[in-house]
């Protein structure tokens, strides 16, 4: 009896040690997860991003490889497959799920093409990004981080410090996108909410009566970027209306 108990515990310890060893082989930018390609095929493996400390790194091109490669050592470039947002229906890491959306990265639009008409037009064109699914339901809600614009190597110390502060702010503030059925994802902050929720009179009426966190605004105030909600307060405002919609009108 003691011998069997000892063997069972030894076996459990060996399994635990192997799991720990597998985790140790992952770099801070690598995660166990899955990808679903455009043909619907799902594959488990390792997902790698450029810099996991930057949330926007999860929104662009990712690398993917089979986790068995780690048993032989470090994964090489030739072992990895790169996937752009146009290549996948979805990818996931743990309980986090990312899907492609068409959206304008506001920081890039603000920064690029200020002196060149062509650059400005390009910067305001919607492009595909991955966005993290915040809520999945009749109306899907996404979290989207705007990436910092390019930085000039000739900048002075004051500019460098200001840029570093801006990068840190970008890590904690994000936009919320909402998507209804086949319609493309739109920014919750800038979408016409009466039109978006027009199929749900309950939500529209409460919105008009200013019963939600998000209040109707008109004129100059609606155009002032600094007055807009961002991050978790914005997510709370969106979810308040989405939950009402799903409870009454879906």
Rg, Cα atoms, Å: 23 Å
Distance between the termini: 59 Å
Number of helices: 7
Structural class: alpha+beta
Mean pLDDT: 81
Strand tally: 10
> Major beta sheet, specifics?
10 strands, antiparallel
Strand content: 15-25%
The neighbouring-strand order within the major sheet is 4-3-2-1-5-6-7-8-9-10
Low-confidence stretches: 5-17, 19-23, 108-124
Range of helix content: 25-40%
Report the order of strands and helices: HEEEEEEHHEEHEEHHH
- As for the number of domains, it is 2
The geometry reads as globular
Q: What does this entry look like structurally?
A:
- The protein folds into 2 domains: 25-94, SH3 type barrels (Roll), CATH 2.30.30; 95-250, no CATH class.
- It is 33% helix and 24% strand.
- It contains 7 helices and 10 strands.
- It has a 10-stranded antiparallel beta sheet with strand order 4-3-2-1-5-6-7-8-9-10.
- β5 and β6 form a beta hairpin.
- The longest helix is centred in the N-terminal third of the chain and has 23 residues, at 2-24.
- The protein starts with a helix and ends with a helix.
Topology:
Elements: H1 2-24, E1 30-37, E2 42-48, E3 62-65, E4 81-83, E5 88-93, E6 96-103, H2 106-111, H3 117-123, E7 127-135, E8 139-144, H4 157-172, E9 175-180, E10 186-187, H5 193-196, H6 201-208, H7 231-248
Antiparallel strand pairs: 1-2, 1-5, 2-3, 3-4, 5-6, 6-7, 7-8, 8-9, 9-10
